[in-house]
Design goal:
This protein has 4 helices and 34 strands. It is mainly beta. The chain has 3 domains: 172 residues, Sandwich (Jelly Rolls); 186 residues, Jelly Rolls (Sandwich), CATH 2.60.120; 40 residues, no CATH class. Strands 1, 20, 21, 24, 26, 27 and 29 form a 7-stranded mixed beta sheet that branches. Strands 2, 19, 22, 23, 25, 28 and 30 form a 7-stranded mixed beta sheet that branches. The longest helix has 8 residues.
Length: 434
């Protein structure tokens, strides 16, 4: 291998062997699990809400992200987001019942919009949506996602008068956030009325405001090779000179279990050329293709568990990856999938490639123009059905263990210093890093 591949880049040594971990409870969003429909994910079921709109006229840069108006409190001093607020007592402006979607477009996902503002105007929309639920709607112990699509920000969402989510900047019509157990408990399931209150600010361009609730899919996940969601991962790697070197490396069977890695670089993935996406180790993807080898150890018990489960290979890539398990090609793709993950269930024949002891999952990625990154992992997932009451299942970890999650429920580790500015969840409570 050393004779075939020259001119490679080194980094500091970090052990390149990964070990499996105990199963963890994981949450994922599923738009089919509708509690309360949203325009973005359940367009076939338009909902109604009481809305208050302020049109601030033409946008100027001085107005960027500046809240222009807020509905007045009622005669009892109740603010617009509180359950006891009486919209009929408000003198400034007026509330009216309207039907979603709430957009600046004539149609949104095929449904006629309530066009609360024109695209080049600045303004605000405030919404009060009432609903009733029973325990059948939110079975005991399930996680709940809030659909929080917004264009633009600042934006806020309240459940029964309590702030559960905020956005300070930008837009995301598809945004969903996993509610904490504490926030889920705010939702009444005794048949009495709930209030979901929303505010979305519009700067300019397209406008959109949305809300909805969805049951989370829950699974017990055993991770054999983690992705960046669970932190950096150790590996051995080569950075080649040209894409044409990939054919030379393949003929040398660089992906074989017995490959001598003494000349390989040791480091941590994922690899990227973008400081804002997947970057643990910098990869000059516009110049060099890359080869990566990750080791993991299995016991007889691990192999037995895997054989009776769905073993999933996950990969986010840019571009043209080829993956090998213990020397056999198991998957390849053309192009890139942005910051998404392709998930592939390995076949019984591919699972049979696993052995007791050392295993190698290797991947090659081509050099290309524009962005470039690679993150991949291997895990098994078993569907999980809660049996305890709401609030008894925590978000991926025991209470007060210091683990940090993003608002999508993804585990990010315990080190605050590694995180960028933003809103996070730790020990069931949200906190801000500035």
């Amino acid at each position: 291998m050393k004779k075939l591949l020259l001119g490679l880049i080194a980094c500091a040594f970090i052990p390149a062997v990964a070990h499996c971990v105990e199963a963890e409870l994981k949450y994922s969003f599923n738009a089919r699990n509708v509690i309360l429909p949203s325009s973005q994910y359940t367009a076939s079921r338009p909902y109604q809400a009481l809305v208050w709109v302020y049109n601030g006229g033409a946008y100027t840069d001085a107005d960027y992200n500046r809240i222009l108006a807020t509905p007045s409190a009622d005669s009892e001093g109740n603010e617009w987001y509180l359950p006891d607020y009486n919209p009929e007592e408000v003198a400034s402006g007026s509330w009216s019942m309207q039907t979603a979607p709430f957009s600046s477009d004539e149609y949104y996902l095929g449904k006629p919009s309530y066009r609360w503002i024109q695209p080049e105007m600045k303004g605000e929309i405030y919404m009060r949506r009432t609903f009733t639920l029973t325990l059948e709607d939110i079975p005991a112990g399930y996680g709940v996602y809030l659909a929080s699509g917004h264009d633009d920000a600042p934006s806020e969402w309240y459940i029964n008068g309590v702030l559960v989510h905020t956005v300070s900047d930008a837009w995301d019509n598809e945004e969903v956030v996993l509610l904490t157990d504490e926030q889920t408990k705010l939702i009444k399931t005794d048949g009495t009325e709930n209030i979901l209150a929303v505010h979305v600010h519009q700067n300019w361009g397209g406008a959109f405001a949305d809300c909805g609730l969805y049951l989370a899919d829950m699974s017990m996940t055993s991770t054999y090779l983690n992705t960046v969601a669970d932190g950096p991962w150790p590996c051995s790697y080569y950075m080649l000179n040209y894409n044409s070197d990939l054919a030379v490396a393949e003929s040398a069977k660089w992906y074989a279990v017995e490959e001598n890695e003494s000349d390989w670089m040791k480091g941590e993935g994922p690899f990227s050329n973008d400081n804002n996406m997947f970057l643990t180790t910098e990869w000059a993807s516009q110049v060099r293709p890359i080869l990566i080898r990750r080791h993991f150890t299995l016991t007889d018990a691990d192999i037995a568990e895997i054989s009776n489960s769905v073993l999933t290979f996950s990969c986010s890539y840019d571009e043209d990856p080829v993956a090998y398990l213990n020397g056999t090609r198991i998957w390849n793709a053309s192009g890139w999938n942005d910051n998404n993950y392709t998930r592939v269930a390995l076949s019984p024949r591919q699972i049979a490639l696993l052995v007791k002891g050392d295993n190698v999952l290797a991947i090659s990625v081509k050099q290309g123009g524009g962005g470039g990154h690679i993150d991949y992992g291997l895990s098994i997932e078993t569907p999980y059905t809660p049996e305890a009451g709401i609030g008894s299942v925590t978000n991926d970890a025991p209470e007060a263990d210091g683990r940090i999650y993003n608002l999508h429920g993804r585990y990010l580790g315990t080190d605050v210093d590694r995180l960028p500015a933003g809103l996070y969840i730790r020990d069931g409570k949200k906190f801000i890093i500035r």
